[in-house]
Design brief:
Helices cover 47% and strands 15% of the residues. With 352 residues, the protein is an alpha/beta fold. The chain folds into 2 domains: 195 residues, D-Maltodextrin-Binding Protein, domain 2 (3-Layer(aba) Sandwich); 97 residues, Periplasmic binding protein-like II (D-Maltodextrin-Binding Protein, domain 2), CATH 3.40.190. A 5-stranded mixed sheet has the order 2-1-3-10-4, with helices on both faces. Helix 6 links the parallel strand 6 and strand 7. Keywords: Signal. This is NMT1/THI5 like domain protein.
């Protein structure tokens, strides 16, 4: 009897040990597996942490034109969504208005040139440039083939139309001076943009100051000729363009959201440049009244020429380029004060 009781006690004890071991193994393995899975969901394939906020706005500085296509591609092709973001891309009404909206927290990100934020930062606006997608200036002087302007000196004895208070108009006297041009020998006509275009298209002036990625292909199509382009960048005036800005408080509070936002745009730029015809068709569907597919395709080809980024993400801001921009703005009296470079821009959100 004693032996039977002893045997039963040993069997019960053995069962407790087996149960305890099984329970211990379960406790150790399951949380570890869950932790690995959670980490994968948190960081995902981007290698970027969870976004702090997911609903954000991007304010453009004008109505649709070809250079804005990558932002809409990121939206339409679901690239923003892949990065866990819901981005509303909004048209704008000038870089200054866009900058003010971002500075006041009305929009999260905005598109400007490098000029306006450089001025705004001096005025105390809480903004920072976080990417620039044209590392070569799109500003050019276009001229009729029968009276070509191939160098700044060729402007002497000719007429040129420019928009009132534009970046070009502000730097124009200094551009001429630095290139040894006598301004008194040029008929410089400052008018509103629509009047500027009409003067050139009606051949009432010899040349016009425009953007390569916007008006240039439009003018060539309307006139049916190849115009003569003079890029200011080839003559010492290279101002970066298509620049993204963010509000300082937003950037500080939402670094992962900002990184995901820029990573999505980087992917969208790659897609756009590799699929320009498809991109053009998508833009036509989005903006049927505003898009001429042939023009947008040419605008994208011209954008590709000045959006050159090797071994770095699209939007990477080169220190030398930013320094040159500030040099131009300073000598042109477009900024009253100059800070250290890191106050103006950062590449930290492009480092994934």
């Amino acid at each position: 009897m004693f032996k039977m009781l002893k045997g039963l006690v040993l069997m019960v004890a053995l069962l407790f040990v087996i149960a305890a071991c099984g329970s211990e193994n379960t406790v150790e393995s399951t949380p570890a597996e869950q932790e690995d899975t959670t980490k994968g969901e948190s960081v995902d394939e981007t290698g970027i942490g969870d976004p702090e906020v997911t609903d954000i706005t991007l304010r453009l500085n004008w109505r649709f034109k070809g250079e804005f296509a990558p932002f809409f591609i990121a939206q339409e092709m679901g690239i923003f969504e892949e990065y866990g973001l819901n981005v509303e891309v909004l048209e704008g009404n000038g870089s200054t208005n866009t900058m003010q909206a971002v500075a006041q927290g009305q929009d999260d990100f905005g598109v400007t040139s490098t000029v306006e934020p450089s001025q705004g930062i001096v005025e105390g606006m809480p903004i920072t440039m976080i990417a620039s997608y044209m590392n070569r200036s799109p500003i050019l002087i276009a001229s009729h083939p029968e009276s070509p302007v191939e160098t700044p000196k060729d402007l002497e004895g000719k007429s040129i139309a420019m928009s009132i208070a534009s970046t070009f108009t502000n730097i124009y006297p200094f551009f001429l001076e630095s290139n040894g041009v006598d301004e008194s020998l040029i008929d410089s006509v400052q008018v509103e943009s629509s009047a500027r275009n009409g003067l050139f298209l009606n051949k009432e002036v010899d040349a016009v100051a425009i953007f390569s990625t916007n008006e240039y292909p439009i003018f060539e199509e309307e006139l049916g000729v190849e115009l003569t382009p003079l890029y200011l960048a080839d003559f010492g005036y290279d101002l970066a363009g298509l620049t993204l800005i963010g509000n300082d408080s937003f950037l500080e509070a939402n670094p992962n959201t900002t990184k995901r936002f820029l990573a999505a745009i980087d992917e969208a730029f790659e897609y756009t440049m590799a699929n320009k015809e498809e991109t053009t068709s998508i833009m036509k569907e989005l903006f049927p009244d505003a898009v001429d597919e042939d023009i947008v395709l040419l605008q994208l080809e011209l954008l590709e020429e000045i959006a050159v980024f090797e071994d770095v993400p699209y939007g990477w801001m080169a220190e030398e380029n930013m320094k040159d921009t500030l040099d131009i703005l300073e000598v042109s009296d477009l900024i009253s004060e100059r800070f250290e470079l890191e106050r103006y821009y950062t590449n930290e959100f492009l480092e994934w």
